[in-house]
Design goal:
By secondary structure, this protein is an alpha+beta fold. The protein contains 14 helices and 15 strands. It has three domains: about 90 residues; about 90 residues, 2-Layer Sandwich (Phosphorylase Kinase, domain 1); about 200 residues, Aminoglycoside phosphotransferase (APH), C-terminal lobe (Aminoglycoside 3'-phosphotransferase, Chain: A, domain 2). Helices cover about 35% and strands about 25% of the residues. Helix 9 runs parallel beside helix 14 and helix 12 runs antiparallel to helix 14. The longest helix has 18 residues. InterPro entries: Aminoglycoside_PTrfase, Kinase-like_dom_sf. This is Aminoglycoside phosphotransferase domain-containing protein.
Length: about 400
């Protein structure tokens, strides 16, 4: 059975809990739809909802609400405490953009934000929310009528480190330089030129050669190795498996596939490689291109010390995952094969396949996170793909 936290946040009682909190803002909840779910290995969770709300004046709006459980409820959230399934549960709730863990978020939605940061004299004319993970991060795309900017909002302590990463990398790579910064957690970045590599692959257009990817990674500055180090894909196996077990607690087919994969990954001996500067989340969605040229590298939030083999493994995990979806052009599969052939000449092939399998386990919660209507089937497909990668290691 799912954890009491997830059962409450995603079950039939969720509207009652959110409605009680919404009433404090003078709103009546008419409909609630989960949009993004983050599950932690402990079983605690954070959910972003789309909510249809009726205001006291009779007007109707669609709002973003968020709820989180466990030890990570940020100070300032509206807290509801009680018992569910025989266990005590606390829930922290807030509405967009008043995220208590992201104090800069409300200011980022202000039309005068660019003017306040000294980046122009006009007001923002268009705002798009590109990403929002409650209590973690938000990315807004804003336009002032002339230029497009991206406002990245993080916890203040994290924003300081991300700014430092951009300052280091933008001197050596096509990384957007920091154009504005606020101590409460907002980073302003100019729009990077080019087309996302993911779109290029979907259209079957010309993509950069794997050698260009390696040259990009080679250019990461050595100073990044002074940043905190993340665990490798193999070191994250147990945490990723625990989170997926909570998400799929009522899906025996998913759990059986997961157990088989984890048992096999537990037999893998991790062979440490050279520590070098890495991006930390290197895949096609982070790259912008024009033809064979790489014009942008984004999302340096996890850049730091690591192993190059994990960079190739993450990219291959994403590319092979795209090949599961019929909507993708055959170019994606061919490109994955080119990247694999190149990476095999740079890192130990057997270890590369093992780490790619581990990286796919980390991606297996993706369909659940976005609440895909057929997420169990999509999750099984990713787990089966990971097992194929592992079997190909010999």
């Amino acid at each position: 059975m799912a954890s009491p936290a997830l059962n409450l946040l995603l079950g039939p009682h969720a509207p009652d809990v959110l409605a009680a909190a919404l009433a404090q803002y003078g709103g009546e909840l008419e409909h609630l739809q989960p949009g993004h779910v983050n599950v932690r290995p402990s079983g605690a969770g954070t959910v972003m909802y789309w909510a249809a709300v009726r205001r006291a004046d009779g007007s109707r709006t669609t709002e973003i609400l968020a709820a989180t459980t466990g030890r990570h409820i940020p100070h300032g959230a509206a807290v509801i405490a009680g018992e569910h399934l025989g266990e005590p549960v606390q829930i922290g709730i807030w509405r967009w953009p008043q995220d208590p863990a992201l104090p800069a978020l409300e200011a980022a939605t202000d039309p005068g934000v660019l003017r306040e940061l000294g980046l122009g004299t006009t007001e923002v004319t268009d705002v798009k929310v590109r990403a929002y993970r409650p209590a973690q991060r938000a990315v807004l795309q804003v336009c002032d009528g002339e230029r497009t900017w991206f406002l990245k909002v993080l916890r203040p302590s994290a924003a300081t480190q991300v700014r430092a990463r951009h300052d280091l990398a933008s001197a050596h790579l096509p990384v957007p330089p920091v154009a504005g910064f606020s101590a409460d957690g907002m980073i302003v970045l100019p729009e990077a030129p080019g087309t996302p590599l993911r779109s290029v692959l979907a259209d079957g257009a010309v993509a950069p050669l794997p050698e260009a990817l390696e040259a990009l990674l080679d250019a990461l500055p050595a100073e990044l190795t002074a940043m905190p180090r993340r665990r490798s894909h193999l070191q994250l196996v147990d945490d990723n498996a625990a989170a997926l077990r909570w998400a799929a607690a009522d899906e025996p087919v998913v759990l059986a596939e997961l157990d088989d994969l984890v048992d096999a990954l537990h037999t893998v001996e991790e062979v440490p490689g050279p520590v070098v500067p890495v991006h930390g989340d290197f895949y096609e969605g982070q790259l912008l291109t024009r033809g064979e040229r790489i014009t942008g590298l984004v999302d340096l939030d996890t850049a730091g010390p690591g192993e190059r083999i994990d960079e190739w493994a993450m990219l291959l995990a994403h590319l092979s995952g795209l090949d599961l979806d019929d909507q993708w052009h055959p170019t994606a599969g061919r490109y994955a094969a080119e990247v694999l052939a190149h990476a095999d000449r740079r890192v130990p092939p057997r270890q590369l396949r093992q780490r790619t399998a581990a990286a796919l386990l980390g991606l297996a919660t993706g369909p659940f996170r976005i609440q895909h209507p057929h997420w169990p089937e999509h999750t099984v497909a990713r787990l089966e793909l990971a097992k194929k990668w592992l079997a190909s290691a010999g």
